[in-house]
């Protein structure tokens, strides 16, 4: 798998123009295959999104690398992630900053990601099952915030939890397309930069649980695998307020 990760980083990230050496190094280190169901381990390093259950997916490698790079992390930061999903993005961020607080509205995914991250030794990641639209005000301020779900506008609650000069990444629904924006807080103003077109599922409210027999299964279902073949996720990169 180490060879597959190195090839993934070289061909899908570095060759595509991603130059942040810290991000490239982190993604060479994080065992991506452990964040996808065992039935899909052989596809973990391909240039596509993959199902992780509950209608959610893990982002394709380039998306994770790009979003991590846009945060401009140097190692001392506290980062808030909205949408834990598999926990993979949180693991990459954990290698780039001092502390990660990650919020997941689907409680079964939060439990699974928290257990996996702990088992892999990511002691600087805290996973919470909560409504991501509220952020985590009691742990604010955050040096950077990344939202892995699409919203109609910038949530004011998240801006209020961002440090001066900090970056916030958010996919915004523009009707016919979604655009990834990078916001920077400067005093009473927010500076906006447009990044790339993207595709994410909506930022949803509330916290959702599920029966234990469904919630705790770590495997992709036959339906997940069939959908993967039918939908060609190489062209998709969907995320919810519940995944990365």
Mind explaining what this structure looks like?
By secondary structure, this protein is of the alpha/beta class. The chain has one domain: Vaccinia Virus protein VP39 (Rossmann fold). It is built from eight helices and nine strands. It has helices at residues 2-14, 21-29, 61-70, 88-94, 107-119, 156-159, 212-215, 222-231, and strands at 50-53, 56-58, 78-82, 99-104, 125-129, 142-147, 162-173, 178-186, 189-198.
Helices and strands in order, then pairings?
Elements lengths: L1 H13 L6 H9 L20 E4 L2 E3 L2 H10 L7 E5 L5 H7 L4 E6 L2 H13 L5 E5 L12 E6 L8 H4 L2 E12 L4 E9 L2 E10 L13 H4 L6 H10 L13
Parallel strand pairs: 3-4, 3-6, 4-5, 6-7
Antiparallel strand pairs: 1-2, 7-8, 8-9
In short:
The chain is built from eight helices and nine strands. The chain is of the alpha/beta class and 244 residues long.
Shape: globular
Q: CATH superfamily, called what?
A: Vaccinia Virus protein VP39
Major sheet attributes: 7 strands, mixed
Ranges where pLDDT stays below 50 over 5 or more residues in a row are 212-218, 229-244
Q: Please give the radius of gyration in angstroms.
A: 16 Å
Order of helices and strands: HHEEHEHEHEEHEEEHH
Number of domains: 1
Number of helices: 8
Strand residue content: 15-25%
The number of distinct β-strands equals 9
What is the average of the pLDDT values? 88
| Structure classification | alpha/beta
CATH topology: Rossmann fold
* Percent range of helical residues: 25-40%
């Amino acid at each position: 798998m180490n060879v597959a990760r190195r090839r993934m980083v070289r061909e899908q990230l570095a060759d595509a123009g991603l130059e942040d050496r810290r991000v490239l190094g982190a993604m060479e280190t994080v065992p991506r295959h452990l964040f996808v169901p065992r039935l899909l381990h052989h596809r973990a390093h391909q240039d596509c999104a993959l199902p992780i259950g509950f209608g959610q997916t893990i982002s394709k490698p380039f998306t994770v690398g790009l979003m991590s790079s846009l945060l401009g992390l140097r190692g001392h930061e506290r980062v808030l992630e909205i949408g834990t999903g598999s926990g993979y993005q949180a693991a990459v961020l954990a290698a780039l900053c001092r502390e990660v607080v990650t919020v997941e509205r689907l409680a079964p995914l939060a439990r699974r990601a928290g257990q996996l991250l702990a088992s892999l030794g990511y002691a600087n990641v805290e996973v919470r099952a909560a409504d991501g639209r509220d952020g985590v005000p009691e742990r604010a301020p955050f040096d950077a915030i990344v939202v892995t779900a699409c919203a109609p506008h910038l949530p004011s609650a998240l801006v209020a939890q961002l440090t001066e000069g900090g970056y916030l990444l958010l996919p915004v629904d523009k009707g016919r397309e979604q655009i990834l924006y990078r916001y920077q807080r400067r005093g009473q103003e927010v500076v906006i930069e447009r990044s790339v077109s993207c595709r994410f599922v909506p930022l949803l409210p509330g916290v959702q649980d599920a029966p234990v027999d469904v919630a705790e299964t770590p495997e992709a279902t036959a339906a997940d695998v069939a959908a993967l073949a039918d939908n060609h996720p190489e062209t998709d990169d969907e995320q919810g307020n519940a995944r990365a």
